[in-house]
């Protein structure tokens, strides 16, 4: 479990924060999504012989696979066009589509985490997960709506605010994943699974 | 978890709707080709006393899609194929194209889906043009950096050539800038005023005030001025707060026509009023493009 959440943590980190070497992105987003798929695989494997449903993680995996394909194509297009194609009207809302799929993916991951805690009778942790998910949604959805408007109207200030709000939401989620990872590292209930 | 599910559903439906509406908007608002705004320009070019070729620098504005990375590489004029001018969107310095270093993306002032771009051109006229000759340019053929070419209406760009300047009126002071100007002339010999003329006068008629010694320019015919008198000229071009007038480039140089004592007719520029295109938003460009039926 700990390994799975560790990978999800780093996947979310790499798809949000890009490290560039000149024009080249050292770790393109699709690599981050591949790490996430691997993390989800670890989680479902760990839950295989338990009574906990893996349905949410399976759903997250489906959306994760779509994101791998979409961001791989995005990387190819940006490499082939040196940026000009990315300004094409066809790709105006490409970032919004990626973020929307990202929201659904992380919803299912947190839903899965909630199910584990609920099945194990850890009501407090289950409630906390639910609360964190709600806060994440209430931050990331308005930021995405703002980003959509800003991309349409080429409004720089709106874009900056939208992206900053989105980053705050992601950092909030990263902190929570770190906490879950630590919880499973200490493994107080690992024997239950 | 039920509330979270509802928040997610509502959020994703909202985002999906915005993306769909956004793409419809992008499709509807995309320009098939750039649109030049209307320019009404007058330039007096003095070619007398063997001064050699004269250079006139002009700026023409056009609207392009904000994402359009092409730039204007050349402009020629179907009505005047003999006029060849260097053109650039990066400014002209001494007739040479200078590219500003370090600038990201194409030049232009982005407003929503559009970008207001400026083409800088340097016209060179030799002394072949006779006194009183004029050139009017209303159309341009624009060559873009990707090799595409399109023809566009420009409005009316007028060059007037003058070899001799009148000695009957001498300007000795003025104030104001842009659309409002006040100038004073010394009358050096007796003259009789005929009228004020400009090829773009009919376009401005409703927005224009020109007073000559407090008399409207339409009522000056037959007015006598004696040597030693002062001719006070006040001019103002008002601009309504509508897209059509906000996005109109004006450079207006009305001329006073008068008869001297010896019966010769002469002219003198009274003032220079202009409106540059600077105060506009996305909605003004959108309305303007609708009026021009470019969308």
Q: Poorly predicted ranges of chain B (pLDDT <50, ≥5 residues)?
A: 94-102
Distance between the termini of chain A: 10 Å
Strand residue content of chain B? over 45%
Largest sheet of chain B: 11 strands, mixed
Cα shape of chain A: globular
Mean pLDDT rating of chain B: 86
- H/E order of the elements of chain B? HEEEEEEEEEEEEEEHEEEEHEEEEH
Poorly predicted residue ranges of chain A: none
- State the share of residues found in helices of chain A, binned by percent: over 70%
Number of helices of chain B: 4
> How many discrete structural domains of chain B?
3
Shape of chain B: elongated
Label the structural class of chain A: mainly alpha
Features:
heterodimer, A: mainly alpha, two-stranded antiparallel sheet, 6 helices, 77% helix, B: 295 residues, alpha+beta, Immunoglobulin-like, 3 domains, 5-stranded antiparallel beta sheet
Mind explaining what this structure looks like?
The complex is a heterodimer of chains A (193) and B (295). Chain A is an all-alpha fold. Chain A has 6 helices and 2 strands; from the N terminus they run H-E-E-H-H-H-H-H. Chain A has one domain. The longest helix of chain A has 31 residues, at 123-153. The termini of chain A are close together. Chain B has 3 domains: 1-30; 35-163, Sandwich (Immunoglobulin-like); 169-275, Uncharacterised protein PF12988, DUF3872 (Immunoglobulin-like), CATH 2.60.40.2410. Mean pLDDT of chain B is 86; it is low at 94-102. Chain B is 16% helix and 46% strand. Chain B has 295 residues and is an alpha+beta fold. Chain B has 4 helices and 22 strands. The chains are: A mainly alpha (193), B alpha+beta (295). The interface between A and B is medium-sized, with 29 and 28 residues.
């Amino acid at each position: 479990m700990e390994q799975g959440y560790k990978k999800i943590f780093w996947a979310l980190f790499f798809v949000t924060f890009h490290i560039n070497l000149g024009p080249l992105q050292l770790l393109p987003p699709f690599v981050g999504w591949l790490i996430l798929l691997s993390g989800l695989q670890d989680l479902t494997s760990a839950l295989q012989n338990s009574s906990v449903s893996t349905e949410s993680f399976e759903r997250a995996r489906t959306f994760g696979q779509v994101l791998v394909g979409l961001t791989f194509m995005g990387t190819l297009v940006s490499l082939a066009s040196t940026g000009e194609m990315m300004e094409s009207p066809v790709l105006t809302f490409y970032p919004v589509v990626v973020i929307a799929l990202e929201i659904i993916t992380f919803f299912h991951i947190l839903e899965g985490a909630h199910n584990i805690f609920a099945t194990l009778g850890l009501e407090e942790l289950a409630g906390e997960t639910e609360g964190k998910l709600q806060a994440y949604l209430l931050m990331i959805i308005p930021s995405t709506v703002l980003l959509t408007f800003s991309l349409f109207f080429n409004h720089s200030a709106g874009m900056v605010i939208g992206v900053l709000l989105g980053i705050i939401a992601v950092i909030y989620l990263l902190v929570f994943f770190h906490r879950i990872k630590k919880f499973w590292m200490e493994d107080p209930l690992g024997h239950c699974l | 978890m039920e509330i979270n599910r509802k928040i997610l559903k509502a959020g994703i439906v909202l985002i999906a709707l915005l993306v769909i509406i956004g793409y419809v908007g992008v499709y509807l608002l995309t320009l098939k080709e750039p649109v030049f705004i209307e320019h009404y320009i007058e330039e007096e070019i003095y070619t007398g006393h063997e001064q050699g070729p004269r250079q006139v620098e002009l700026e023409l504005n056009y609207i392009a899609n904000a994402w359009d990375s092409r730039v204007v590489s050349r402009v020629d004029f179907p009505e005047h194929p003999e006029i060849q001018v260097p053109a650039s969107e990066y400014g002209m310095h001494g007739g040479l194209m200078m590219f500003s270093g370090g600038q990201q993306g194409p030049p232009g002032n982005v407003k929503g889906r559009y970008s207001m771009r400026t083409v800088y051109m340097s016209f060179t006229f030799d002394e072949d043009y006779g006194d009183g000759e004029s050139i009017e340019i209303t159309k341009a053929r624009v060559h873009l950096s990707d090799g595409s070419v399109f023809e566009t209406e420009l409005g009316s760009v007028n060059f007037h050539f003058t070899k001799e300047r009148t000695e009957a009126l001498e300007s000795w002071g003025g104030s104001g800038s842009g659309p409002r100007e006040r100038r004073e002339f010394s009358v050096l010999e007796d003259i009789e005023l005929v009228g004020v003329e400009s090829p773009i006068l009919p376009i401005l008629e409703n927005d224009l005030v020109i007073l000559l010694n407090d008399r409207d320019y339409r009522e000056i015919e037959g007015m006598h001025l004696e040597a030693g008198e002062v001719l006070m000229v006040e001019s103002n071009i008002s601009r309504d707060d509508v897209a059509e007038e906000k996005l109109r480039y004006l450079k207006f140089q009305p001329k006073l026509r008068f008869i001297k004592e010896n019966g010769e007719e002469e002219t003198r520029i009274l003032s220079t009023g202009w409106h540059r295109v600077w105060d506009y938003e996305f909605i003004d460009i959108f309305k303007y493009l609708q009026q021009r039926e470019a969308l």
